[in-house]
Amino acid sequence: MRIAIKxxxxxxxxxxxxxxxxxxxxxxxxxxxFSEESDLxxxxxxxxxxxxxxxxRQMVRQALRRNxxxxxxxxxxxxxxxxxxxxxxxxxxxxILPVQDKEKEILEYLGQFxxxxxQRHHKVSSSRVRSWVKVEDGCDHFxxxxxxxxxxxxxxxxxxxxxxxxxxDLETKGVKEIVLCGINLGYFGRDIAFPFINLLELLVRRTGxxxxxxSSFEPFLLTRFFLERYFALGRRVCPHFHLPLQSGSDxxxxxxxxxxxxxxxxxxxDTLRQMVPSVAVTxxxxxxxPGETEEDFQNTVHFxxxxxxxxxxxxxxxxxxxxxxxxxxxxxxxxxEEKKQRERTLLELAEESRYQYxxxxxxxxxxxxxxxxxxxxxxxxxxxxxxxxxxxxxxEKIGEVVRVTINRIERDFVVAEPLVESEEPGGVKHV
Length: 431
Ligand code: SF4
Prior knowledge:
The chain is built from 14 helices and 18 strands. By secondary structure, it is of the alpha/beta class. It folds into three domains: about 1-120, Methylthiotransferase, N-terminal domain (Rossmann fold, 3-Layer(aba) Sandwich); about 130-360, tm_1862 like domain (pyruvate-formate lyase- activating enzyme, Alpha-Beta Horseshoe), CATH 3.80.30; about 365-430, CATH 2.40.50.140. A five-stranded parallel β-sheet has the order 2-1-3-4-5, sandwiched between helices. A five-stranded mixed barrel has the order 13-14-15-17-16. The chain has a four-stranded mixed β-sheet with strand order 7-6-8-9. The longest helix is centred in the C-terminal third of the chain and has 24 residues, at about 335-360. The radius of gyration is 23 Å and the shape is globular.
């Protein structure tokens, strides 16, 4: 039986879909591209913004059109939202599966469609060089704009031994970088009395070479104690932190219920840079939160410029039913054109900041995990999340970690040349 999967939204959704794809392949399903005709379409949807929800519904419509006989399943946050609101836009044509344990429950559901003969035709999913592993689900924080805790519920951590087994399995399959992700990663372990840093130390100790990167980490959960133990793990962990800022205006941060102010955020970044000057700090910034004045916005612009993020994800506030900010939008919402204008301003700044960050690494060496090679041009990310292109690299290098010197800065990426270890002790020389 053929199955096509479409994933929208966050890295947690992506990690859940990846795990599902590999289990489905082991269980006799043939994984096909979403653009192909399939017997079954599974859409792992997102509801974090109105736009994400719209795209999810669009994917469902595409699947229904592609094969009118196909079974279409919708899971993820959109499924939960629809169920909560008792909505069914497709009049029963789509199976809505708002499951907690996606992998287990979906496999159980799909088990009824797999014939014993299909079990004999395994098709292994493609192996990746970089893979996401979900370690936690849910959030107890309830930021005033966020629908996620309402849909995903409270914190639930995966058992450390299960995570370790998954990570070890990925390493044996050739994965070189693992991104640990969760809905609120910093909350990992609260429910099982196992701090996240202990998990990370366990994973580093019990694996060989694979390097670890963290997905988003809430600033209010990052402590100096954590950072000292993190950086003590050396090259096995990436000097990269994604710290969602959301706003550079204190009154807005307070209304968002984020749990920090700009002074706290600033000192956190200072601490990070004192510890590791080359660290990459990336972020999410939301514009047009209800009541955001021009002055609030300008404060955000100045703050972002002062921090100098290496990458910024900029998006407009989107009212989600059931959250306090949904009510405020009616009373003090920012006009749509204004939101768009603010978004554009920050996107320009994001581009400039990224360029400035990359420039610091001209003539410096970084380590790149080669993810792909096309016409002799390799592509991958450095440990500090710089997109790097390396000319003259053969395809056999895919999946290898190469040391390179950055020698050119382009708009969206940098160009580098490989190094070879010198016979002289401690030295490296250019190829
Ligand atoms: S910390 Fe805030 S933004 Fe993040 S998932 Fe929890 S409620 Fe949502």
